[in-house]
Each structure stands twice: as structure tokens, then as C-alpha cells.
Amino acid sequence: MSTLLEVSGVSVSFDGFKAINNLSFQIADRELRAVIGPNGAGKTTFMDIITGKTKPDEGRVIYGDKSVSLLKMSESKIAQAGVGRKFQRPTVFEDQSVFDNLMMALKKTRGPLAVLFFKQTQEDSDKVADLAEQIGLSGALHRKSGELSHGQKQWLEIGMLLAQDPRLLLVDEPAAGMTPAEREHTTDILREAAKTRAVVVVEHDMEFVRRLNCKVTVLHEGSVLAEGSLDHVTKNEQVIEVYLGR
Ligand SMILES: Nc1ncnc2c1ncn2[C@@H]1O[C@H](COP(=O)(O)OP(=O)(O)O)[C@@H](O)[C@H]1O
Ligand SMILES: [Mg+2]
Predict the structure, then answer these.
(1) What number of CA atoms fall less than 13 Å from residue 134's CA on the CB side?
(2) What CATH fold (topology level) applies to the domain 1-82+167-246?
(3) Can you tell me which atom of ligand 1 is nearest the CA of 202?
(4) Is 43 in the pocket of ligand 1 (CB under 6 A)?
(5) Does the predicted model carry a pTM greater than 0.85?
(6) Tens digit of pLDDT for each residue in 190-218?
(7) What are the extents of the domains in the chain?
(8) Which of 10, 13, 14 most suits a substitution to test ligand 1, by most atoms within 8 Å of the C-beta?
(9) Are 1 and 33 in contact (CB under 8 A)?
């Protein structure tokens, strides 16, 4: 498998506090990866660096077939280059139907004017139906998004990101506030999504991470503490110390 993203020797400080400390990380094309670690470990900052929201003080972030540096690119250029990110804040238009939200997300990939002057083709409608199926909302296509459950809104957001067909998808704590059944469905969506793109999932819930059934990176104090299967990393003494206290 070829490397899609390579982060090496990245550090960033906020007011003298090293939130990310000489961090190195690689992910291959169509790889699913879980990133875990205690609160304050630097997980969100790590995603901020990849997406260009935060610029590191040192290190390299190299992406794609042409090995471009993401550090020189703006957030919007990085998104255009195929890096999608799911934020915690909702980006769903609550007054619009599930169908319309997905359709708008699909059109957004063709530039802002396409959203204004769109002509709905059968192909687009089929694509929206496919997306709804991927996120388990086929039965809710014509419901107002504001009426969806918390979990369903999160899935819709994932669907809106998938509509833009990112090559690397980053999701930060997607299962927060979900019921156990919703969590299960979310792991299914992410595993399926990772068949056609790389997906990085930050998540606290170990049961969720176990269901993802993928390689795990443990972050602690801004560095990688351990990496490997969940069974492998949870046997690591330093990981046990960090999670269970000293
Ligand atoms: N913009 C910022 N300014 C100052 N400190 C920050 C900023 N962003 C994050 N931090 C600090 O960096 C550390 C890592 O935060 P974060 O990446 O949010 O951790 P995690 O997502 O793993 O919980 C924390 O101690 C946090 O307080
Ligand atoms: Mg966080």
C-alpha cells in the first residue's frame, strides 16, 4: 500500500506549551486508522495541523501522489486537494430535507455557482440515493434534517462529506452522545467508507475502536506512545500507565 499522508517531526506550541511534540504519523491509501489518547493528548490539534487550521512550528506534512507539502497550503486548498474533515459543530441545514442537504453537498464539489444554478440530473439523484444508503438514511430522505435524531444528524454530516469524495477523511469523536446502536452503525459507516478512501477516526470509546477493527495510534502529550492492533497497544505498559493512572 502506498503512503497517502506522511507527518514527520511535527511540533507546535501554544504559549510555550508543546501540544504536539515531534509527532510522526503515516497513513496509506484506503486505510482505516483509529487515534486514541487521553484528553489533551493533542488529537484535535493533530487534525488541525493536517487540515491547515494550525501551522506547526517544525516538521513536515506530505500528502498525495505528488508528495505536496500541506504546510504551504490554505485550509480551503487542502480541502480541495481531497482532505475532508467532520467537525463537531453541525453543518447540516435543519430546515432542508436529508435529500436536499446531500444534493447541496454534492453540488458544492462543482464550485459555488453550481449550488445556485443547479440543474438536478438523474445521475445526481442516484448519487444522493447511494449516499443515503451508505449512511443508513434511505428511509429518511424526505424528512426535514432538523427532525433527525442526534445520531442520524451525525450520519448525514458524514454523508455530506462523502458526497465530496475526499481521499482522506478525518473524523473527531463521531460517536459522542450516540446510543450504543447508533455507535455500532457509525462504525459500519466508517469501515465501509475506508474501502474507498483513507479514514482517520479519533475516538475515546474502546468498544467503538474495537469494532473498527483497524490499526490504532495512541497519542500522549503530543507524541505517538504506541501503534499497532488494539490488543497490541492495550498490552503496552506505558499505555496502561497513561490510561489507568500511575
Ligand atoms: N488554540 C490553542 N491555544 C492554546 N492551547 C491549546 C490550543 N489548542 C489546544 N491547546 C492545548 O493543547 C493540548 C492538546 O489539545 P487537543 O489537541 O484539543 O487535545 P485532545 O483533542 O487530544 O483532547 C491541550 O492541553 C489544549 O489545552
Ligand atoms: Mg479533541
Answers:
(1) 24
(2) Rossmann fold (3.40.50)
(3) 21
(4) yes
(5) yes
(6) 999 999 999 999 998 889 999 999 999 99
(7) 1-82+167-246, 89-165
(8) 14
(9) no
